[in-house]
């Protein structure tokens, strides 16, 4: 049985820059177990700023 309490969620954000005025333009996510084996990959989402 998988111990879900030890799973890790990884989130990668692509930004337009590093300052407070910059925004997120892409988000990706991944779930691994405590041994860093990939359990699930989330969608990669491109953010369209209006």
Concise account of the structure shown:
One of its GO terms (molecular function) is nucleic acid binding. The chain contains no helices and four strands.
Label this structure with key terms.
46% strand, four-stranded antiparallel β-sheet, mainly beta, 50 residues
How are the secondary structure elements laid out?
Blueprint lengths: L7 E8 L8 E9 L5 E4 L3 E2 L4
Antiparallel strand pairs: 1-2, 2-3, 2-4
Poorly predicted residue ranges: none
Mean pLDDT: 91
Distance separating the two termini: 45 Å
Report the C-alpha radius of gyration, rounded: 14 Å
Helix tally equals 0
Multimeric state = single chain
Helix content: under 10%
| Beta strand % | over 45%
- Give the overall silhouette: elongated
**SS elements, strand count:** 4
Description:
With 50 residues, the chain is mainly beta. Helix content is 0%, strand content 46%. It has no helices and four strands. It is elongated and about 40 Å long.
């Amino acid at each position: 049985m998988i111990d879900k309490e030890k799973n890790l969620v990884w989130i990668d954000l692509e930004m337009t820059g590093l300052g407070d005025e910059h925004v997120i333009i892409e988000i990706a996510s991944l779930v691994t177990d405590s041994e860093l084996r990939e359990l699930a990959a989330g969608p990669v989402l491109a953010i369209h700023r209006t």
